[in-house]
Amino acid sequence: MRNVRLLMTGLAVTMAGDSLMLLVFAIWIKTLTGSTGAAGLVLLCVSLPFALSPAFGWLVDRVRHRRFLVTVNCASAVMLLPLLAVRGRDDMWIVYVVAVLYGTSMVASSAALNGLLKELFTEERLASANGRVTTVQESLRLGGPLAGAALFGAFGGGTVAVVDAATFLVAGGAIALVRVSERTPERVEAHWRQEVSAGVRHLFAELTLRRTVLVAAVAWLSIGLVESVSFALADQGLHRPPEFVGVLASAQGVGAVIGGLAAARALARVGDVAGTGIGLAGFGVGNLVCVYAWLPSVLGGRVVSGFGLALFLIGFTTILQRKTPRPLIGRASTAAETLTSGPHCVAMGVGAALISLVDYRVLLVMTGIGTLGSGVVLAAGRGAPAGEPDAT
Fold it and tell me: Which parts of the chain span the membrane according to its record (predicted)?
């Protein structure tokens, strides 16, 4: 229990910083430029490192996960400091660069966390552990985006960056105190290309993983289109200032908290794959509800989409952890990130360009239909239950 409390404390603190900072990146650019497309582009910068994540997976599988997480948290605190130099529009390139570094930190931490959770929890408790992590993360999003927007409005982005840097340091200290007996990974003498690509080969050799990753890639292609919609929805649809995006994010957080709490039971009842598909379909329905720009329907749609997204992410992560052996968990995790984040990044770029050219409701409909359809396909082709071999 001591290890679980320390890990969850460290994750909660660093996630609190993320909830403050991630939206502030976009608000900062929107304030400097007045452009919704430019604000959406900074979110693309955060996602870009996920396309290069197999290299991080190779590194994660060669080191002890707890120590790696501590190092990444400390380095992340340092990477935020250049934001203190941002004074005006001419300095906005610094925000973009730090956003890329932030994404790099996120992908490296995510792979190492998957490995550490696999060390700390049994197979049967992985879904519950993933649900707990998601619940903590999404609970913080209830007030985090609003607090970040408020801090930005009152004191500027530099203050938010300093607060976020402090959370990384506290998180690193808490994780450093976790006691876990991790074996030193064995070094396999193989060509680096074989080692880096081992995660991809594993994903496509395993039937359930292959089906889930391919459907998820299509789904993230749809999700990427809507990443830039929040500002247009707040501005053009609801006629609110950019900071109101924090309210929309908080509404989605409410649904995600509910999804995180319900995920373990839902996945146990219907199976990991079917539950993941149901989550995707729910996210699609939530986005379709938001097409009608009436505040109650938009907030309700955000709650539904948050629930669905949480269930989808927890199910996807649990399938990956259960179907992957420990020596491959880092490379398999980052390979899955690449295969899903690649389409996501492309779609985010397209969405950032389209948001200035087409009605935001068109993107909501495209995302809703794409994720709803992906969820139905995944839930209908359930595959083997978790822990059982796939049929050949």
Answer: 6-29, 41-60, 66-86, 93-113, 213-232, 244-264, 276-295, 301-320
Overall domain count for the chain: 1
Nearest to 256 by CA among 216, 283, 229: 283
Token pair listed for 234: 């707040």
Structure tokens at 59: 């590194």
d(CA 304, CA 310) in angstroms, rounded, equals 10
- What does the pLDDT read at residue 386? 43
110-140 pLDDT, tens digit each: 878 888 887 788 777 888 888 888 787 777 7
Sign of CA dihedral 379, 276, 48, 353: positive
9 lies in a domain? yes
Stronger pLDDT, 3 or 379, i.e. the higher one: 379
Alpha helices in the chain (DSSP H): 2-33, 36-47, 53-60, 65-79, 92-120, 126-155, 157-176, 192-205, 207-225, 229-232, 245-270, 272-289, 295-322, 329-354, 360-380
Enclosing domain of residue 361: 2-181+190-380
Distance CA 218, CA 214 (A): 7
**Given the structure tokens 């991630």, which residue do they identify?**
22
Its pTM stands at 0.73
**CATH code of the domain in which 309 resides:** 1.20.1250.20
Contact 298, 238 (CB under 8 A): yes
- 222: closest CA among 347, 342, 345, 309? 347
Distances in Å between the alpha carbon of 106 and those of 178, 292, 334, 344? Answer: 20, 34, 11, 16
